[in-house]
Inverse folding.
């Protein structure tokens, strides 16, 4: 048990001051106690420890009229929050909060409130004690259990809804990190028996972590709703308690997801859908976030994996349960492997932050950095500043320097640009009296370099996997420090320092561009820390020479700033800022940017663009017209299935709310809602509707011509050929200059349609 070898020299500010190893769970069990679950070589040990709630105050006078018990300590320094108050239990703590709200007229969380605190008792315990989860453990030491459910859908509906009388659970598939697997089958157990047996299996296998793909917004809510119908609950806690849920929100860059947070006593709950979305923020490589597509992308789909058309899943429970079981087991195997690949970074971060594993995934990176600061300032009993007033500052340098088709192309970027700038120019928050910021940033950077070196020198797959995951976790943290400077809720945020970082970053990237141009390269696109460019003659297309060229450009930069080759491509279509297409030397097409890869497109449009770009970037411009003709021929001869042209929408309002909004002209007419209303079936909020456009004529009102996808008849196909043909032609017309222009050397100046 344990890690191969973490970098030496403990750092209390980074890993917490308490060395307790094997902690896998912390749960409040009484007003003044928490229960610790500690994994040892002998097994799991449960023990209780004191919970001593606390909060920060501007001064002790805020509790002058407080009649309850409290221990006050004066903190060193002169920042805003100079007093810390400790309470004997959580109820007393909450009573003190009510008193402070009344006495100050400021609710908890208000920016100008003269007090602040962590609302999570687990975070309070970890912060005060200096303990963290998973110290001394390796990822493989965690007991992880994966689950996935399949359901039967009532006739006339496409998607499951747990509140619908005729729907039911037909299969629960389970696996865990030891390789154990089982299936709870609806042909052998009633729905109530499946739910009870699932609880028994979870308690028996006793996992530290429960995992599933879309676990929060489908599997667990569905299971809870069906359990209520059976007058039961999901008793999955280590103390036998039921799953607890509450509404919450999760952010991954520009995406904000509302979800039902699920808490299970003594266990962590990890939704791999969230891991996938966080991964895509960094890579922008995924076409979608579905389990099967992600598994294929990551190369973890099982050999001979069973695939089932989603429309057939409901019926398989009656016609071929064995096939459904095989399909479900492949689902949990893929979930297990996706978690193994994408989850290790969050595992290592959990070893550092005073947060649960679950919160390490769902909390923002800047919030986590703030928690490190506050833990260290609390440990050293130093006062804490109030978050600064937000100020605007210029961001990174982004520019489009050439458009059209260019080849070959190299992508270089400055290694950890903003962290390197902060270290090279000694930029840190002005109010960080204790110097925690540079200490953490320098230590993390050194640890990452050691982990990268150990990755290269690893003798075993296990070693390599461990150190690769560790350096990835450290990279995430290192890159978060700049974001923290501009984080409005950060107690040590510093907008002036953030502005200086971006200014130095812009200057460095301008220097890179000038050096590239001076040495005969042609810059194409610049995005904050990286540049795509065409290498100079004699270098282009020769990988060793391209690497030498990038190294020579790096040599013209300050000593602490390193430029590295991030990729090389056969060709590139530069369209707009942050919108481009890359063709790898292996023939893979990578489409970036919402102007080229909108998830609002029908599938046939996405497929057409991918094939068109592959042809054009591969030097087969004349293939473009033939490609369009082939797609149109398939459309006109009804060779497409609805999967290619249908759309799926979720009903976010009930039908009654939709009708009221329409009556008040508060929203536009929706095809999905109109179809749900016309069906006469009890569609509910959260149901999904898949539809296509039928009839004739390119210019139709979609809500008038739409039909449910289940109504499409392969013997009498009635999709609107003119409508979909126009969409295809409009798309082709937009990029036709790439196909028709007779002079490839002019393609950097092509006028493309919008």
């Amino acid at each position: 048990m344990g890690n191969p070898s973490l970098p030496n020299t403990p750092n209390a500010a980074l890993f917490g001051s308490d060395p307790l190893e094997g902690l896998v769970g912390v749960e409040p069990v009484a007003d003044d106690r928490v229960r610790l679950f500690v994994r040892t070589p002998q097994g799991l040990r449960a023990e209780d420890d004191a919970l001593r709630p606390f909060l920060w105050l501007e001064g002790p006078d805020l509790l002058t009229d407080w009649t309850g018990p409290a221990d006050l300590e004066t903190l060193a320094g002169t920042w805003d929050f100079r007093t810390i108050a400790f309470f004997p239990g959580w109820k007393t703590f909450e009573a003190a909060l009510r008193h402070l709200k009344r006495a100050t007229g400021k609710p908890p969380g208000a920016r100008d409130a003269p007090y602040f605190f962590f609302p999570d008792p687990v975070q309070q315990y970890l912060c005060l004690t200096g303990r963290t989860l998973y110290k001394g453990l390796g990822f493989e030491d965690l007991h992880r259990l994966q689950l996935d459910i399949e359901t039967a859908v009532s006739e006339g509906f496409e998607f499951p809804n747990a509140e619908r009388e005729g729907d039911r659970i037909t299969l629960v598939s389970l696996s865990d990190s030891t390789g154990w697997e089982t299936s709870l089958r609806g042909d052998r157990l009633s729905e109530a028996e499946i739910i009870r047996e699932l609880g028994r299996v979870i308690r028996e296998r006793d996992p530290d972590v429960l995992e599933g793909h879309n676990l929060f917004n489908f599997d667990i809510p569905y299971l809870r709703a069906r359990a209520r119908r059976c007058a039961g609950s999901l008793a999955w806690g280590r103390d036998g308690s039921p799953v607890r849920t509450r509404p919450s929100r999760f952010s991954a860059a520009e995406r904000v997801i509302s979800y039902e947070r699920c808490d299970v006593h003594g266990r962590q709950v990890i939704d791999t859908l969230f891991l996938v979305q966080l991964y895509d923020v960094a890579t922008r490589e995924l076409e979608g976030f579905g389990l099967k597509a992600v598994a294929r992308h990551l190369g973890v789909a099982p050999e001979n994996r069973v695939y089932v058309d989603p429309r057939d899943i409901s019926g398989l429970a009656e016609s071929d349960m064995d096939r459904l079981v095989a399909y479900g087991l492949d689902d949990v195997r893929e979930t297990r492997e996706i978690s193994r690949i994408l989850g290790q970074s969050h595992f290592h971060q959990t070893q550092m932050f005073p947060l649960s594993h679950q919160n390490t995934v769902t909390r923002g990176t800047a919030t986590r950095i703030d928690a490190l600061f506050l833990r260290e300032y609390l440990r050293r009993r130093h006062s804490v500043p109030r978050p600064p007033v937000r100020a605007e500052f210029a961001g990174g340098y982004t520019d489009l320097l050439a458009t059209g088709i260019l080849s070959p192309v190299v992508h270089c970027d400055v290694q950890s640009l903003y962290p390197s700038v902060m270290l090279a120019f000694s930029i840190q928050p002005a109010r960080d009296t204790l110097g925690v910021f540079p200490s953490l940033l320098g230590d993390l950077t050194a640890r990452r370099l050691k982990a990268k070196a150990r990755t290269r020198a690893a003798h075993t797959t296990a070693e390599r996997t461990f150190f690769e995951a560790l350096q990835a976790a450290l990279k995430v943290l290192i890159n978060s420090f700049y974001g923290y400077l501009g984080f409005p809720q950060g107690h040590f945020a510093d907008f002036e320092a953030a502005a200086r970082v971006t200014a130095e970053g812009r200057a460095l990237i301008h220097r890179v561009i000038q050096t590239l141009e001076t040495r005969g390269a042609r810059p194409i696109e610049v995005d904050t820390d990286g540049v795509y460019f065409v290498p100079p003659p004699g270098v282009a297309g020769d990988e060793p020479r391209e690497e030498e060229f990038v190294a020579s450009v790096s040599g013209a930069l300050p000593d602490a700033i390193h430029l590295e080759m991030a990729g090389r491509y056969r060709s590139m279509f530069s369209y707009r800022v942050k919108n481009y297409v890359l063709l790898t030397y292996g023939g893979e097409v990578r489409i970036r940017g919402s102007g080229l890869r909108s998830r609002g497109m029908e599938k046939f449009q996405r497929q057409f663009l991918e094939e068109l770009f592959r042809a054009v970037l591969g030097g087969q411009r004349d293939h473009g017209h033939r490609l369009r003709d082939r797609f149109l021929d398939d459309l006109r001869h009804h060779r497409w299935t609805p999967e290619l042209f249908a759309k799926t929408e979720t009903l976010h309002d009930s039908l009654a709310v939709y009708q009221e909004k329409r009556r008040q002209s508060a929203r536009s007419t929706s095809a999905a809602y109109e179809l749900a209303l016309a069906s006469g079936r009890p569609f509910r909020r959260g149901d999904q509707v898949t539809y296509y456009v039928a009839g004739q004529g390119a210019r139709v009102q979609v809500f008038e011509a739409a039909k449910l996808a289940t109504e499409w008849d392969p013997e009498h196909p009635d999709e609107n050929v003119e409508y979909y043909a126009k969409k295809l032609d409009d798309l082709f017309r937009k990029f036709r200059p790439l196909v028709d222009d007779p002079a490839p050397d002019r393609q950097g100046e092509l006028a493309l349609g919008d």
In short: Residues 4-8, 742-751 have pLDDT under 50 and may be disordered.
